[in-house]
Design brief:
mainly beta
Length: 43
């Protein structure tokens, strides 16, 4: 049995963190081998 490394990159918007109706926070989620890290891209 071999362990193949996996990588996932996902950009998403969090509307609950929106400053107003026109602006919302954009987040990036990186998943490597099932372990997740999320960060704001400040846009």
């Amino acid at each position: 049995m071999s362990n193949n490394p996996s990588l996932g990159i996902l950009f998403f918007i969090r509307k609950e963190r929106a400053t107003d109706e026109k602006h919302a926070a954009i987040y990036l989620r990186i998943t490597v081998n099932g372990k997740r890290a999320e960060l704001s891209i400040k846009r």
